[in-house]
Amino acid sequence: MAQVLLENVTKLYDGNVTAVNNLNLEVADRQLMVIVGPSGCGKTTILRMIAGLEKPTSGTVAIGDKIVNDITPNNRDVIMVFQNYALYPHMTVFENMAFGLKIRKYPKNEIKKRVAEAAMLLDIENLLDRRPKTLSGGQRQRVAVGRAIVRKPKVFLFDEPLSNLDAKMRTTARAELKAMHNKIQTTSIYVTHDQVEAMTLGDRICVLYNGIVQQIAPPQQVYNKPANAFVAGFFGTPAMNFLDGLIQYRNDNAYFITNTEAVLLPPRMKTLLATYKDRQAVLGIRPEDISSQPISGQNKNAIACTVTVAEPLGVRTNIYLKSISGRKIIITASPYTNIRPDQRITIYLNLEYAHIFEPGETGRNISLDT
Ligand SMILES: Nc1ncnc2c1ncn2[C@@H]1O[C@H](COP(=O)(O)OP(=O)(O)OP(=O)(O)O)[C@@H](O)[C@H]1O
Ligand SMILES: [Mg+2]
């Protein structure tokens, strides 16, 4: 059993930088937790505190059922895989993978056995005699992972291990990492700033911003029930549309009103938002929940717009729009759409899938049922 538990962990660096602010994070045994957030939000700092390379200013870090704050990195049974794999150039793949065991004085046959196992798992058996400079980026990444696997740690920490790979290689390597985790089932914490990597890899995702946890949940929940406007805007391409406005109640219905547009909120929101009557708020709606065709039951939620740009992507076309009141809205359309720039169109919002946030960059989602 190697769950990882961080309780009330804060890290202040010299110069008064709060890199991590009162973090509470529980990673269950065998789980793959992804920590995602923009550059500088504190991701590497969290990994370094778990690895023992950095001391928390306050709070506790536990691995298994043991608090490890005072345990040295070497005795934590945790291995970190970095962005630059730092393979030894003068050693073969076998020697690179064996190195950590050799300096720990493992018997020769045990080393051979472990390297062979890891090489089979990662499908690099035919590379064992090669040197790193003769390998592709993806192959190097596998060797780096292999070097960590042979140590059989309790916990793997991955710090953006795929960020040096090109887009196509990343997709393959991502799938390989996921398959590897499914096989070896070691508790893993994976750090990235890439929302797609987070969605596809994580059993659960921890969204971090400015050293503060915004939400911890499974991928689908982070996407469909974002806790706040930051999380909502972070996931999804193109990003969610945000419209400022006012929540108003008229004739026993709840509306969201912008300068010139009014849309009817669904009944569940009417109940949820009663205490926000006449208050400023932000309506969030994903491009895929807006259509250029009427949506059954949503015909009150039409907005007249002018097309500014149509961006064909092959699999779909992104349509950039400006409403009469000057709001910018993005919708997605079929690749065969005949919508063209300068055209006037009416769009229909499926408010069943919309969210209402309090104003501000991390404004709370006030339209969640639970
Ligand atoms: N040794 C240090 N001394 C002072 N400040 C530091 C130190 N290390 C990191 N920081 C600061 O702490 C904050 C968090 O840094 P961290 O490296 O954890 O971010 P990150 O999320 O890993 O970013 P990136 O995605 O760019 O790798 C940043 O503001 C950074 O400048
Ligand atoms: Mg980092």
Order of strands side by side in the largest beta sheet?
A: 6-7-8-3-9-10
Shape: elongated
Number of helices: 9
Radius of gyration: 25 Å
**Structural class label:** alpha+beta
Compounds present? adenosine-5'-triphosphate, magnesium ion
Which residues form runs of ≥5 with pLDDT under 50? none
* Average pLDDT number: 93
CATH hierarchy, class of the largest domain: Alpha Beta
* Number of E strands: 20
| Helix-strand sequence | EEEHEEEHHHEHEHEEHHEEEHEEEEEEE
Largest sheet: 6 strands, mixed
Strand residues, percent? 25-35%
Oligomer: single chain
Can you characterise this structure?
With 370 residues, the protein is of the alpha+beta class. The chain has two domains: 4-233, P-loop containing nucleotide triphosphate hydrolases (Rossmann fold); 238-357, OB fold (Dihydrolipoamide Acetyltransferase, E2P) (Beta Barrel). The protein is 25% helix and 32% strand. The protein contains nine helices and 20 strands. It has helices spanning 43-51, 93-103, 108-122, 137-149, 167-184, 195-201, 219-224, 229-234, 267-272; strands at residues 4-13, 17-27, 32-36, 58-63, 66-67, 78-81, 155-159, 187-192, 204-209, 212-217, 241-250, 253-257, 262-264, 280-285, 290-291, 302-312, 317-323, 328-333, 344-349, 355-357. The strands form four sheets. A six-stranded mixed beta sheet has the order 6-7-8-3-9-10, with helices on both faces. A five-stranded antiparallel beta sheet has the order 13-12-11-14-20. Strand 17 and strand 18 form a beta hairpin. Helix 2 (93-103) packs parallel to helix 4 and helix 4 packs parallel to helix 5 (167-184). The protein binds adenosine-5'-triphosphate and magnesium ion (MG). Residues 13-15, 17, 19, 39-45, 193 line the site of adenosine-5'-triphosphate.
